[in-house]
Design goal:
By secondary structure, the chain is mainly α. It has helices at about 5-30, 35-60, 65-80, 80-95, 100-125. The chain contains five helices and no strands.
């Protein structure tokens, strides 16, 4: 991996983390704190974008481009978050909200899988 790609990954990661925090803030303002809507939203959006962008870069043979590293590894790697999802779920369990914890697990997994599949299908329609 080149230094150029590492710089693009770092820049994408910084932007992805900022956007993740922004989405989390907006979702908290809009929907409150009783469920981790922000994490669900970034995981769903990020999965959809991953499907779209990865399909584009793979099918156009541009995966090695710095833009692919910036978007796929840097931006989406920092924008989506498995660790926050895990902590949100544990916090719901510790608060004795086991049903909400289960809903959080199912919603994140199902919605993220649906979004990544939709992203792939949509990009293939346009290529």
């Amino acid at each position: 991996m080149s230094v150029k790609n590492l710089i693009f990954i770092a820049l994408g990661g910084a932007l992805g983390a900022i956007c993740r925090a922004g989405v989390g803030f907006v979702m908290t303002v809009l929907l409150g704190t009783h469920f981790p809507y922000g994490t669900l939203m970034v995981n769903a959006l990020g999965s959809g974008l991953m499907g779209l962008l990865a399909t584009y870069f793979l099918e156009t043979n541009n995966l090695g481009q710095p833009l692919a590293a910036f978007l796929l590894v840097g931006f989406l790697g920092a924008f989506t978050t498995f660790s926050t999802f895990s902590m949100d779920t544990l916090n719901l369990i510790l608060a004795h909200k086991v049903l909400l914890a289960g809903l959080n697990i199912m919603a994140n997994l199902l919605l993220s899988m649906i979004c990544v599949m939709l992203g792939v299908v949509l990009m293939r329609l346009f290529l």
